[in-house]
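User: Quick one: structure for sequence A, then sequence B.

Assistant: Sequence A:
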Amino acid sequence: MHGTYIRGAIQNIPDWCRHLYIKGIVHKEFVPTGQTVNSGFYCEVLRRLHKNVRRHRPQLWREQTWLLHHDNAPSHTSVLTHQFLAKNKIAVIPHPPYSPDLAPCDFFLFPKLKLKLKGCRFDTIEEIQAESQRVLDTLVEKDFQKAFQKWRRRWDRLHAGGNYFEGDGGQ
């Protein structure tokens, strides 16, 4: 992933990293072309996220009330990543196995991007990144609050013993 930071959540993003906060994006970066998202790279992303939470959400930083939610990708579950999280006292919401439906990027960000970018042609990666950024800049706090509520409903349903399958009305 990278992750999604929703009042503390983080989710897997294949080509880039978006960290979401219920009030908006706290940290965003594109994965460089050819870069493998391994544990070392992921820890560097987490380091930059950690720094940006401190800078942009100082109250959450001071009170240590932000949480990280990321999936079970190998770079997220490695010893190196666990050591980084422990050293920096970053609390993590455990991600249940085989639960891709909990990824806000998959049910919130990617559909919005796909809708706006569908049919567009780009000559360079920089053009794709710029247009993606323009789309993300249109999102308002209410959009992030809705995404968090949707994530919460999915989380609650999964942990209430109900199986969640996309399209079964649990969205």
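Sequence B:
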Amino acid sequence: MGCQAIRGSSPTRNERGYRLTPQGTLCYTRSVASLEQGLLSLIRYVYDLMQWPGVVTLMALESACIPLPSELIMPLSGWMLVKERSLPAIYTLVAGAYGALGCTIGSVVAYVVGMWGGRPVLERYGKYILVSHHDLELADRWFSRYGSLSIFISRLLPVVRTFISLPAGIARMNFIRFLVYTFLGSFPWCFGLAYGGYYLGEHWEQIREVMRPFDPFIIAVIIAFIAFYIYRHIKNIRSPAREPGQSDGDSDRSS
């Protein structure tokens, strides 16, 4: 997409802070920017209608496996709900707390779906998508041992933070630890983005411009992991079955 013409005068920015050329055009360098502008209009409408509860609502949706970018939600809260209302910067802590609360609520929804919906489905039909009972047991042990750290770190990663609650629910991670580390990991993320929006003011969208290039990299890593998982399982399926009591060393020598 090239440039979308906008009628009116020719300031460098319009009243909503969108960058304009001197000829009064709104330019996009990527097709995703067009979608994000639509999301911005939605977020502004929610904030105008609901104020702070709007932050909770939008971040709950983002953490319930609905890909609303928090990189838009939280910076805009720092600008609209703090900066534009002439509140001191300390109120970005309030924005961070509301954002983390919303993350926790939405994560609980995804966790419950994973535990009560995803787990039984995978136990019954997982073999058709290369998920065995052994894989589920490995996931259970992983979240039992490293779940707290995994949840905390995941909340600081774009893309991953949106979907981590689902596998945590499937693995039936301890619910209290899940809640605590979800909030603790979400708060610095939400506060940092809200403060960035407050500090940058009408230039807040620069935060998304800086963070956008990381999304394809993280998605590529996830795809590579899934591809390796599929390759490993197909290889195991095609390998000859071992005789009872045969060890790895015996198998190697016999080959």
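The chain is about 70% helix and 0% strand. Strands lie at 3-5, 25-27.

User: Thanks, that's what I needed.
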